[in-house]
Design brief:
heterodimer; A: mainly alpha; 11 helices; 2 strands; globular; B: mainly alpha; 15 helices
Chain lengths: ~290, ~350
């Protein structure tokens, strides 16, 4: 039981941060039909910004850094949207992928100038570090922070998208952009807001995991692969699907590690292949025209 | 909507008069001149530079083989590194496990690539457009983690290094000539394939999938065939990587490595046969010299890619043919009208 709890909390925590990144990716796709390969860069920038702002503090400054990093990266997202992404909305997938991959390269280079090529780490605030005991298992308190954030993000996004007029506009932005614009909605501003929000989510995830990982260049490329797997399994554009898929990927990874460590990292890819063979448009996606 | 690749469009225009042989000769003139230039360069340059030229030649095959799907089939694959890796690892693992000689491995590798392309293609082609691109990307990353983690079989993160090529191939000029010969033959075959009825159907699928389907063509089978042929020649290119570097390591199959032939095709021009060749040379030499002179090669490549994809989606070859067209028009004193530059197929199957 103790073993199970340890694994379960760890899995939920991993799936939680993955969900927050992937939710940003799928939110942008849902509103603009653009897959942003530079999404992982926002995650990396969020993490690096926290290391810069929080420094070695293990108190309040960490939380300030968390919020500040998310806001700064949201502004960066707005710049990327205005400078690049708005020109590829509605273009071929290839154009979008190459353009956003170019952004990934550019941001990676700038990141090297800002933070160097070494790894950095951050301490979790004392209030949420250490472990707590539950049914005989010692569990990291910080995992609960990540899980809590993921639940919060999920609930807010779900309410926003299905119960507000903003969510209705975001969905209409893809289904019938002309009518939406005729109704007086500024589509460009909507895209800008959604893209910045997507970047903010990526940065938030990158920022919140900093106490548990070593922050280093290259995390932009590795996280984008996992988040792509998640959004593809869940069905592009579906927040609910993304939540399920993040859990599937998290579980696949944990089970893989338990079954055979040398094959562990392949499990999530096989999960993707199996899902797409059965449903080529993902669990909660819609078939492409 | 029908869009013809620039080379064909121009060739068709020029072939209108004159014998078919003259047209064929004129069409072959530019590639032939390019081939001779590369050959002469390779035979006269310093050994260190020959190696770089040889690498560019092998990448040209990788880019054209990838473009068979990308530009001609409208299938955006970010997973061709898998087959490149099969090519490279067949040679290096054959050597390491002492199960294959160099020449055996060189012959076997393309067929292994093609054989692997059958199941992977059957899976990947169930998906369309963006999902296809992302699924192939996932396959590439899967190949990467297998190569990285199966340390006992693949050498893990360090990969395989060693004297895996025969000693006569350690002379730069010999390995250059072998590479050039293999690439030239492969490109000739690919040219034949793309200018056969099969290639025509493939382009038809790219431009208007529904109409071709309605004509009774088995679209899936054609796309799968393109996937397998591409896998075959990507594996050939992969074997040439071993000839170049005497090594193979996981980074050659990850998703960014799979992106590189795509970028080469985009830079050079994906709607022509030789565009990716140009792209491969430009990319590789730029990459080589940028790394030597600046730390900011990622920045430069990123900006260049961005500029091309936003401003000239038909790549350098498209720009060149547009310039050539303007020049011809001035020469022939044809009043200027809208340029007949080939446009990428918008909205069609991709």
């Amino acid at each position: 039981m103790a073993r199970f709890l340890t694994e379960a909390i760890g899995t939920l925590s991993d799936a939680g941060s993955l969900f927050v990144v992937a939710a940003g990716l799928t939110l942008v796709f849902g509103a603009m039909r653009v897959i942003n390969l530079a999404h992982g860069s926002f995650y990396m920038y969020g993490a690096f910004l926290v290391t810069t702002i929080a420094g070695t503090s293990s108190g309040l400054r960490f939380w300030v850094a968390l919020g500040l990093a998310a806001v700064v990266v949201a502004l960066l997202g707005a710049v990327v949207q205005l400078g690049v992404v708005r020109f590829v909305v509605g273009k071929e997938p290839l154009t979008q992928l190459v353009a956003t991959f170019a952004v990934l390269y550019i941001l990676a280079d700038i990141g090297l100038h800002l933070w160097g090529s070494g790894a950095r780490s951050v301490n979790a605030p004392l209030a949420v570090s250490g472990t707590f005991t539950l049914a005989g298992a010692y569990l990291p308190v910080y995992d609960l922070v990540i899980i809590g954030l993921a639940i919060l993000v999920g609930v807010v996004l779900w309410l926003l998208l299905s119960h507000t007029s903003l969510g209705w506009m975001i969905r209409a932005a893809v289904d019938d952009p002309e009518l939406l614009q005729a109704g007086g909605v500024n589509l460009r501003r909507l895209h800008l807001g959604v893209f910045a929000a997507g970047a903010l989510l990526a940065a938030l995830a990158g920022a919140v995991v900093t106490p548990q990982i070593s922050v280093a260049p290259g995390m932009d490329q590795s996280i984008i692969v996992s988040s792509l797997l998640v959004v593809v399994i869940g069905g592009l554009g579906s927040i609910v699907g993304t939540a399920f898929a993040a859990l599937i990927i998290g579980i696949a990874d944990t089970v893989g590690t338990l079954v055979d460590p040398t094959w562990a990292s392949t499990f999530m890819y096989f999960a993707v292949i199996i899902v797409l063979v059965v449903r080529p448009w993902g669990l909660f996606g819609t078939p492409e025209r | 909507m029908t869009t013809l690749p620039a080379a064909d469009l121009l060739a068709a225009g020029r072939d209108a008069g004159g014998s078919p042989w003259a047209g064929r000769l004129r069409r072959a003139a530019l590639p032939l001149a390019f081939f001779v230039a590369v050959l002469v360069l390779g035979l006269t340059m310093a050994p260190a530079n020959v190696l770089e030229l040889q690498y560019a030649v092998s990448l040209a095959l990788f880019a054209v083989a990838t473009n068979l799907m990308l530009g001609f089939g409208g299938l955006v694959s970010f997973g061709q590194g898998v087959f490149y890796g099969v090519g490279a690892y067949t040679v290096s693992l054959g050597w390491m496990h002492q199960s294959l000689s160099f020449s055996e491995a060189m012959i076997l590798a393309p067929f292994l690539g093609a054989a692997l392309a059958v199941p992977l293609g059957m899976i990947a082609l169930r998906t369309r457009r963006l999902y296809f691109a992302l699924l192939t990307l996932a396959l590439s990353q899967l190949a990467y983690v297998i190569a990285e983690n199966q340390t006992n079989f693949t050498g893990g993160t360090n990969g395989v290094f060693g004297a895996m090529v025969p000693s006569w191939l350690l002379v730069p000029r010999n390995s250059f000539l072998l590479t050039l010969a293999i690439v030239t033959v492969s490109l000739a075959i690919l040219w034949k394939v793309l200018h056969s009825p099969f290639g025509l159907v493939l382009r038809g699928i790219r431009d208007n999938r529904e109409r071709v389907e309605a004509l009774g063509v088995n679209v899936y089978a054609h796309e799968l065939a393109a996937f397998v042929i591409s896998g075959f020649f990507c594996a050939v290119a992969g074997t040439l990587f071993v000839v170049y570097s005497q090594s193979s390591y996981p980074e050659i199959v990850d998703w960014t490595a799979s992106g590189i032939p795509v970028f080469m095709a985009v830079i050079g021009g994906m709607y022509t046969f030789f565009g990716p060749v140009v792209g491969a040379f430009v990319y590789e030499f730029a990459n080589h010299y940028l790394i030597e002179y600046t730390q900011d090669w990622q920045l430069v490549i990123g900006v260049v890619l961005l500029a091309i994809v936003l401003l000239r989606p038909d790549g350098l070859a498209g720009s060149l043919s547009a310039i050539g067209e303007r020049w011809r028009r001035r020469r022939d004193r044809v009043p200027a009208g809208p340029p007949p530059a080939p446009l990428p197929p918008e909205g069609g199957a991709s």
